[in-house]
Structure formats: C-alpha cells, structure tokens
Design brief:
With 278 residues, this protein is of the alpha+beta class. It has a single domain, classed as 4'-phosphopantetheinyl transferase domain (Ribosomal Protein L22, Chain A). The protein is built from seven helices and eleven strands. The strands form three sheets. A five-stranded mixed beta sheet has the order 1-11-2-6-5, with helices on one face. Strands 7-10-9-8 form a four-stranded antiparallel beta sheet.
C-alpha cells in the first residue's frame, strides 16, 4: 500500500497486518486528530474550505466545541480521501444530508467512491476510509469519572448491563467503552448499508461479548486517551492508523500544490501495539 503523507504534516503511522491476512480482502485507514493541537488562527482558513451546505450547518451550531468538531472532522475527511485517492483536498466536495453522513463528491463522477465514517469525542476527531468496503467508526475519550453503571442501565440491553455488573472496577470502565463504541460503530455501519438500525444485544445469553456477527466485523486499536472501534461489512486484510501531530493551513496548501508520496517501506510497522479483534 502507498500512503501519501502531506508536506509539513508530521504523522505517526501504525500499520497492522491482521491475522488470516488475505490481500484480496479490503483494507482501511483510520485518521485520528487531537483538535486541541490545531492553531486557532488556522480555523478561519478551514471554514473557508467548507462547501455551501457544510457552511450552513456549521453556522447552526451554537457551542464552540461542536463547531470545532464539525469543522475538523470535515477537514480530516478531505485529507484522508486526498491521501487514499491521490487527489488534492480542494477538489473534494461534501454535501450535508439530514440524518445521515454527508455525500462525498469527487471531481470525476465515474470514480468509485470510497467508504468513510466520522466520529468525535471532546477534542478528538476520527475518520476511517477504505475502498470496496463499508465502514463505521466510533471513538470515546476514556473518562474514569463517568457513572458507567448508571449509563449502562439506561441505554444498554439488560443482558449487556448484566455483563458489566460483575466486572471489577479496573476492568469495567474499559468494558463499558468497548461496548459503547462497538454499538455506535455498528449502528453507523448498518445505517450506511441501509439496514435496520435497531441493534441486537452484543452480549449473548452465554455472557460473551460478540466481536463479529452476520455481515459485520469489529476491530479495536489501543490508544492512550481513547477507545476506538471500527466495524466493517467485510473482513479487512490490513488496518492502518495515521495520527497527525497538527493540522494547519500550511498542510492544506502543501497538499493542494504537492502530490508527494512515501512508500509502505517508510511506514513504521508495530504489529504488537495493535489489538485487532476478528
């Protein structure tokens, strides 16, 4: 795989080969960004890159945090698709749609659209992209102060809540976030496929937390601040992670004017740091 790293964009890239690797199966790339590292002076520039429907929706948000999440999510998506398809980000369009993900518009209407999914949690935004596969992603900042049992009782199926109850405190927080993120990622996947959005319990009567089901597969990646879950409608051969240290107008302008690439040999391979569930 060739992954293009934009000039001026310092990235930590992790490549994981999944077990039972089959190169005929699709792959996906997860982009993660800590939005607190994006300089304030660059936000106004990014607002100018929004399309008409994006700008209208952006203007409807009242909270500063939500406006920032929306803006950086749309920019990260453009960088991700730009890298995947070797296109400058300024030729990529997004059209907002009510109740679902935005529509990606490519300059060549004959090109096959890649699948993508977006998520955000506090300062963080995430985007997963991939060709020939449908994807859903969810991230959550790990917050040890949250009342996970109270939330679980309100929103999870009774079987899922009962699965959390006996776990020791140190394990319960992680279990809660993995269950939450998997449900959200699976919901997004099913929505993209046009399927029923009501989810069956992810914990069976046997007390086992499902990591796959009919036409879906779950993948998790370790992160110091986040829980990350990705669901796909097909098994993946590879999952890549790109985490820019920042995102600026310089990065945008460099991406528009330069199509430099780096080969996979320049990507750090750290299989032991990725926990992928099939």
């Amino acid at each position: 795989m060739r992954a293009r790293l934009l000039r001026g964009l310092r990235s930590r890239v992790t490549l994981s080969r999944l077990k039972n690797n089959n190169l005929d199966m699709p792959s996906a790339t997860l982009w993660l960004l800590d939005g607190s590292r994006v300089p304030e002076e660059d936000l106004a520039f990014f607002v100018q890159q929004l399309g008409a429907s994006e700008a209208r929706r952006y203007g409807c948000f009242k909270r500063r945090e939500r406006k920032r999440q929306f803006l950086l999510g749309r920019m990260l998506l453009r960088f991700a698709v730009s890298s995947l398809m070797s296109l400058p980000p300024d030729v990529l369009g997004l059209v907002e749609r009510t109740g679902t993900a935005p529509q990606l518009v490519l300059p060549d209407s004959e090109s096959l659209l890649p699948s993508f999914s977006l998520s955000h949690s506090r300062d963080w935004v995430a985007c997963v992209v991939g060709p020939n596969v449908t994807l859903g992603v969810d991230i959550e900042v790990n917050d040890p102060t949250r009342d996970v049992l109270g939330i679980s009782e309100l929103v999870f199926h009774p079987d899922e809540h009962c699965w959390l109850l006996p776990q020791i405190d140190s394990a319960r927080l992680s279990a809660f976030y993995h269950l939450w993120c998997t449900r959200e990622a699976l919901y997004k996947l099913r929505s993209s496929l046009g399927r029923q959005r009501v989810l069956s319990p992810l914990v069976g009567v046997d007390g086992v937390f499902a990591s796959q089901g009919p036409n879906w597969h779950r993948y998790t990646l370790p992160h110091s601040a986040l829980t990350v879950a990705i669901c796909s409608d097909q098994p993946l051969s590879s999952l890549y992670k790109i985490e820019p240290t920042e995102l600026t107008r310089v990065d945008w302008l460099a991406a528009v004017s330069s199509m430099d690439t780096v080969t996979a040999s320049m990507i750090e391979r750290v299989n032991d740091r990725c926990s992928i569930e099939l």
